[in-house]
Amino acid sequence: MTNLIAPGLKRMSVSVTRKMSASLPGLRRLAQDKGLKIHHLGAGYPHPEVTDPRHFLEHEAGYLEHLTQVEGLNDPSVLPENLREAFSYGDTLGPPSTRQVFARVYGNDWNLEMKPDCLIPTVGATGGISLICSVFENAGLPLAYLTDAPTYAGFMARAGLCQQAKIYSVEMDGEGPIPAVFEQQIVAARAAGRLVPFYYTVPDGHNPAGFSFSAKRRLEILEIARREGILILEDAPYLYINFAAPADRQQPFVSLDPRQTVHLFTGSKIGFPGPRVGYLYSEASIEIANGEQASLAELALLQASADILFPNPAAYLGFEALLHEADFSERTSMWPVAEEKLDVYRENREIMLQGFESSLGAYPDLFHWTIPMAGFFSVFTFLSGTIRTDDEFIRKLVTEYGLVVIPMYDFYPPDARIRNPNAGLDQLRISFCFSESAGEQRRKDLTEAVSTFCTAVKHLAGVD
Ligand SMILES: Cc1ncc(COP(=O)(O)O)c(C=O)c1O
């Protein structure tokens, strides 16, 4: 032990998802000792079948070779510029070419004329969340972070690091955050002397709430945010993991108003999580000290230059390769990239929803599940009032049925659990994105997992 005294420094609590993954090997052994097969309905990871990097690595090598050709280098002893750039100290904004191509392709997909200089590289969406929190925390003022109840565990973990920030959460209905509660929470936070910089949300394929906001609700929330002078921090990892027909896809907040929005793009789901590629995009301008105006992109850039100094240029050039076709011409859209992944997720989603419907559809008074139009999750609710989805219940599902699912209660911020101590305690987050197997075996495993889940919940609810 040293004699350093750090008063005020607190040990943060660990999220239930982390606790689950820590306790899983033990629970798995217990289940396997009973001869039970483990059924994955918990993990929120991209499916291994769509994250095999081998084809991508070939394409990336070809793209870099193509860049060398474009440079006009024929002398193999001369180091190509793209190779030099990939392993050098770069710029906090990352390779300019990647930002320019991304701005065109993403802008085309989401009906937006994107300004490449407003794109700030981040370490995935996680880095984007942290970056924007840091920007506002630097001033040392008491803050209120507005978010949904339930909300993404990673956001709660980051918000929880800042002792002068408090989460003010907003309950949701089937369309999104409830506007009246949204307004009340802003008023309450301001009355408590807190600055409310943004509202953090995941409008498409909400993790963990398992649905996407309606178009109408997005406009209502945007209207309040404009009126109250609050940014919308839009975390968009599942924008392309979208199950709606193209004409029915919702507009993200960034398309509706890039000046009121801070949009977080990540390459983790459309590409690969490992390279940690992401962008924060905003055209917002805010008033800072002494009544000065500052663009949010500029504030984020300054923060990033101290936080990460510069993003990994090789990872960004690899992502740039993904924005090019097989013949290395620039893509006009990322939807064909998404389509390769969507085949698997669409199929898994159908297996889950059809399984629920055929086994549990006859009990609408007992069970409810969300129909996700994007993302990886559905929220399953027990309506009988007799089932409590606490840690003991989760443990029982693993050890008696081999089922791994995530309880919802821990996704409710502390204030929501004070308003309703039972919040989430009748719900589970069911994920349909991950299994250890591929192809036909994946279909069989998921079908079996869903069927085991339905048998278990009927048994536990006393209807078998
Ligand atoms: C809502 C949400 N935000 C952020 C992340 C993390 O994304 P990244 O890998 O880009 O940091 C996830 C991943 O599960 C997520 O669901």
Automatic annotation (TrEMBL):
Record's keyword annotation contains Transferase: yes
Gene3D superfamilies reported for this sequence: Aspartate Aminotransferase, domain 1, Type I PLP-dependent aspartate aminotransferase-like (Major domain)
Pfam families for the chain: Aminotran_1_2 (PF00155)
InterPro entries from the UniProt entry: Aminotransferase_I/II_large (IPR004839), Class-I_PLP-dep_aminotransf (IPR050859), PyrdxlP-dep_Trfase (IPR015424), PyrdxlP-dep_Trfase_major (IPR015421), PyrdxlP-dep_Trfase_small (IPR015422)
Residue ranges constituting the Aminotransferase class I/classII large domain according to the UniProt record: 84-418
Domain of life (superkingdom): Bacteria
CDD domains: AAT_like (cd00609)
One GO BP: alpha-amino acid metabolic process
UniProt KW Coiled coil keyword: no
Cofactor(s) the protein needs: pyridoxal 5'-phosphate
Keywords: Aminotransferase, Pyridoxal phosphate, Transferase
Single Gene Ontology MF annotation: pyridoxal phosphate binding
Full protein name: PLP-dependent aminotransferase family protein
Organism annotation: SAR86 cluster bacterium
